[in-house]
Design goal:
Layout (H helix, E strand, L loop, with lengths): L1 E6 L2 E7 L3 H8 L3 E8 L3 E5 L13 E2 L3 E5 L3 E5 L3 E2 L5 E6 L5 H5 L4 E7 L1
Antiparallel strand pairs: 1-2, 1-10, 2-9, 3-4, 3-10, 4-7, 5-8, 6-7, 6-9
């Protein structure tokens, strides 16, 4: 399934994982969320409800990864870097060109809907 992520006037398509976490996330769509800046590489927000998890360490976070930290923290990464943390993968943005500029360095409103 494809996910449309809208940030201001920019939109990005993501491919969702075939897992329980992604399916539970889809059930809550459409969502408009305020996402907070963290570490100059990610935006995050706490969801109102927990999602199922199957966390593991990806070793490397990729630009455009959409993941769940814990059971209710949605994270959208906009830089590639190594990590020691565990996440459950929800999906990945197909083309990240312009993602960093769209997200900026402040809190941002992000809309998630099915394509």
């Amino acid at each position: 399934m494809k996910l449309k992520i809208i940030i201001g006037t920019s939109s990005f398509l993501a491919t969702l994982q075939d897992n329980a976490t992604a399916r539970a996330f889809i059930e809550r769509l459409p969502l408009t969320l305020t996402m907070t800046e963290l570490n100059n590489n990610e935006k995050y927000t706490d969801l109102a409800e927990n999602l199922p998890t199957n966390a593991s360490n990806p070793t490397t976070i990729q630009n455009g990864d959409l993941m769940l930290y814990g059971s209710n923290t949605l994270v959208l990464f906009y830089k590639t870097f190594s990590t020691s943390y565990n996440y459950t993968k929800i999906g990945k943005i197909n083309d990240t060109q312009g993602l960093t500029d769209a997200l900026g360095l402040a809190t941002v409103t992000v809309k998630f809907e099915l394509e």
